[in-house]
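Collaborator request, handled under Task 6.
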Amino acid sequence: MPSTEIRPRQTLLNEMAGRHVAFREIIERFGMLLDRQAEAREELHVVNPAKCAYEEERFLGGEPLVAFVNPEEFGPALRQSASKLWPFLGLVFPPLHEALGTIGKRLDEDGDWLNLCLRAIVHGDEEALTQAAALAHVSPDFLFMALQTAYGPCITAHKEALLSLAPAELWRKPHCPVCGSAPDLATLECHSGQTDFLISKGGELWHHCSACSHHWRFVRLECPGCGNQDHKTLVRFSLPDSPREHIYACEKCRHYLPCLDLMESSDKVDLDLTALGLVHLDAVAQSKGYAPLSPAPWTALGLATPEAKAS
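Structure tokens returned to the collaborator:
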């Protein structure tokens, strides 16, 4: 009998760590971080979506919902989230402790710097990110990782309010309709009402957002990184003992995305944990020279190993 409820998160993390011993430390550390992010999300105040200057034509043209929000609206939530998460991140990853303390103090005391960070993380302003990193004497990559860690709970807390503004079920873009982030996971799913044709072709492809955890449908046979639709340069591979776990990769842009096949599964799945549980596939893909599409922090840890093999 398939499960109708998602099992406790710690149970799932323990099973992941036991299954992938080589990646136990990564799964345990980032699992703790995901738990702390969930706690932070529950404590945040939600911005009133009535303040958004939403335009449906722009949204359907590909602009995510945060494009219609003044980034400064997220200032109090980002400060609150960072105050909870950055000290914890410094404890879990001691080499980051000093730098996180420095930027945490600046976030509290320097409103102009906070606004630069908000422009960078909410609206994807690369110039603002570069400028903020230079002022704080840290690398842009480090600052983006830290900001993303704190921003994830903020945008997730606002997700339902933002989605109430738009016909998000019509969205077929590769990036998230809520926050514009890249997916960290694809899933193959069979929903009730699908035609026999769709089922025979492998069902629907869905994306899971790396930042706000939104779940949206995407088209099959298209690279979410570059839009390539040439099936000859779109590849899929998996490990011999895990036929339902795949890597989708593009030979044109050399990006990859993990995928979990749920076509024959009726169990509820915690998608927020699934990408972390596929970290072994990240290792395989990186060993083949592909770069992660997702900005999830564990994908940037140099996971490629000479022992990683796939079919």
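The cover message to the collaborator said: "Strands lie at 183-189, 204-209, 215-218, 234-238, 245-250, 255-261, 291-292. Residues 171-300 form a domain with the FdhE-like fold fold (CATH 3.90.1670.10). Please let us know whether this matches your experimental observations."
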